[in-house]
Amino acid sequence: MPRMSFGPEQWRVLSPYLDQALDIPPEQRIAWLESIREKNPGLATDLQMLLKEQHELGDFLKTDAASRASAATQMVSEVDSRLRNLPPSHITFAALALRRGPIAQASGDLKPALDLVTHAAAIAEAWIKGHGEGQRSLQNALLARSGIQLQFCHTDEATNDARRARKIALDTTQSGTFSILPGRAYVALGRAFGAQGKREEANVVSRGKDH
After folding, report:
1. DSSP 8-state code for residue 25
2. Separation between Cα atoms, residue 199 and residue 190, nearest integer Å
3. Number of H-type helices and E-type strands within the chain
4. Total tally of structural domains belonging to the chain
5. Is residue 171 in some structural domain?
6. Model confidence over 167-184: pLDDT tens digits?
7. Which residue segment(s) compose the domain that 179 sits in?
């Protein structure tokens, strides 16, 4: 099935909504999409198609390594062709690197996966400094890198990334509003503490409390 094609400006608009959708449990996405559709039918249709592609990506990760490699090459080349007119420092490339990271990780290539999420974090940090936005991309990159660092047994690095992700989540979540972002960061920090043998600290942060 051919992939959808969006211009850079469309990706800038869609990316935050797609990230939000992926944070919502699958069984709740239909209701969420319908709430979007009431206000913006076109946006909801685009998101529905992107989520379908994301589901196909999940199916693809369950296939054998040779099939994954072939499909990954095709997907990445298709996406790259859409982005040729963007500067390499554009925040869209952070999202692309974050999409590639799990592909490499699922194939057992941890070093390329770590390099990809580190590249995503660097792009996001530079974009935040220059444009004042991109905190969500940076948090996602830090959480992804924290998980990969644990696989390398780099517990200190994993903890530092999880701490930074937690701070971003708390700083960017408005008081009184629900967001899954702080919870993801607390879970990552709890895992990092657990890998360090800090059971008490792990139990504290896993309950969503600061340490």
Report:
1. -
2. 9
3. 10, 0
4. 1
5. yes
6. 998 888 776 555 667 778
7. 91-206
Q: How many CB atoms lie within 10 A of CB 30?
A: 11
- Return the structure tokens found at 56: 């196909």
The three-state (H, E, C) secondary structure of the chain, written as one string: CCCCCCCHHHHHHHHHHHHHHHHCCHHHHHHHHHHHHHHCHHHHHHHHHHHHHHHHHHHHHCCCHHHHHHHHHHHHHHHHHHCCCCCCCCHHHHHHHHHHHHHHHHCCCHHHHHHHHHHHHHHHHHHHHHHCCCHHHHHHHHHHHHHHHHHCCCHHHHHHHHHHHHHHHHHHCCCCCCCCHHHHHHHHHHHHHHHCCCHHHHHHHHCCCCC
Mean pLDDT of 91-108: 80
| Distant-in-sequence, close-in-space partners of 59: CB < 8 Å, separation ≥ 6 | none
Tell me the CATH number at 158. 1.25.40.10
Angle between helices 135-151 and 155-172 (to 10 degrees): 160
The letter for the amino acid at 189 is L
According to DSSP, residue 2 is labeled: P
- Please indicate, yes or no, if residue 124 is contained in any of the structural domains: yes
User: pTM score, two decimals?
Assistant: 0.63
Tens digits of per-residue pLDDT, 27-71? 888 888 899 899 999 888 888 877 776 555 444 334 444 554 555
Q: What is the DSSP letter of 79?
A: H
- pLDDT, tens digit, 9 for 90 and up, residues 11-31: 667 767 876 777 777 788 888
